[in-house]
Write a structure and sequence with these properties.
With about 280 residues, the chain is of the alpha/beta class. About 40% of the residues lie in helices and about 15% in strands. The protein contains eleven helices and twelve strands. The strands form three sheets. Strands 1, 2, 4, 5, 7, 8, 9 and 12 form an eight-stranded mixed sheet that branches. A two-stranded parallel sheet has the order 3-6. The radius of gyration is 18 Å and the shape is globular. The relative contact order is 0.20.
């Protein structure tokens, strides 16, 4: 790939909780095809993957993800009954600090924008200066699950609340061609076909779905509808949708499956990517 093309390509990495491990596979496979992004934006889990890739630490994130088991996931959950989120997030935050090592946005190798939502106003904020780790923590601070994070005097929550797939921010970094990774459920005739199993089964009987399944489904529905609206107004040049059907939003121990789905999604999209690159 020539330098002109390389400088034109941006990656917009979407929100999607545990399904976001697919971003690792997407980035790896794109680079194996010789496609190296010169600009990256991310919301929520997309900010985590994008920020660590921009800092040259994607391999550390992959090792962490593949090392997760259900027991390990539970050990990282520090329940907070009195705070503004069910999980304090200090254990995960400590691990992130170790990996990032105090890096700032000016230290990273690839220009990067981290999307967050200002709690008081609902404004979409583009974080692109200062320390990297707090910005990433703010972007994945899912309301009700993680505590809001204070950055530059603002209380911030998950970027996916306002912009699940940040295409416009990617173009603002100078990308002429934007590859968006949308982790929303695959759809058929506009109907989501990816639902938590116990919700689907409860439709056939009298048993009610579990609390986690209700939260997961509500988040998926909201994110999917918002992503469709935002992408219709500012469509990417290429949209990649990893097939993670049957994987719950909080099944972080299934990283191997999600990473493989990301790699397969790139291979399916390569004919479209090559055509788009040819006209740059």
């Amino acid at each position: 790939m020539n330098g002109k093309v390389r400088k034109a390509i941006g990656l917009a990495l979407g929100a999607g909780a545990a399904r976001g491990w697919a971003h690792i596979g997407v980035i790896e496979r794109l680079e194996e095809h010789g496609i190296h992004a010169s600009a990256i934006t991310g919301s929520s889990i997309g900010a985590l993957a994008g920020g660590l890739h921009a800092a040259g630490r994607l391999s550390a994130l992959k090792d962490f993800a593949l090392g997760l088991t259900r027991r390990r996931v539970l050990s990282l959950i520090d329940i907070s009954w009195r705070g503004s989120g069910l999980i304090a997030g200090e254990r995960l935050g400590g691990l992130l600090d170790e990996v990032v090592g105090g890096a700032t946005f000016s230290d990273i190798q690839i220009p990067f924008i981290c999307i967050a939502t200002e709690l008081g106003t609902g404004h979409e904020l583009w974080l692109r200066s200062g320390e990297l780790a707090p910005a990433i923590r703010a972007s994945y601070a899912l309301p009700g699950v993680f505590r809001p994070v204070r950055v530059n005097g603002h209380w911030l929550i998950d970027g996916g609340v306002v912009n699940p797939v940040p295409v416009a921010a990617c173009r603002a970094l100078g990308a002429r061609m934007v590859i968006a990774v949308n982790l929303g459920p695959e759809t058929a005739a506009g109907i989501a076909i990816q639902n938590p199993p116990d919700i689907a089964s409860s439709d056939k009987g009298a048993s009610a779905p579990s609390l986690t399944s209700v939260i997961s489904a509500a988040f998926s529905i909201t994110q999917d509808r918002l992503a469709r609206s935002r992408l219709a107004g500012d469509p990417p040049d290429i949209s990649i949708m990893p097939r993670t059907n049957g994987m719950g939003l909080f099944e972080f121990d299934k990283a191997e499956k999600a990473i493989a789905a990301g790699r397969e999604a790139v291979d399916r999209a390569m004919p479209d990517i090559e055509r788009a690159i040819a006209v740059l």
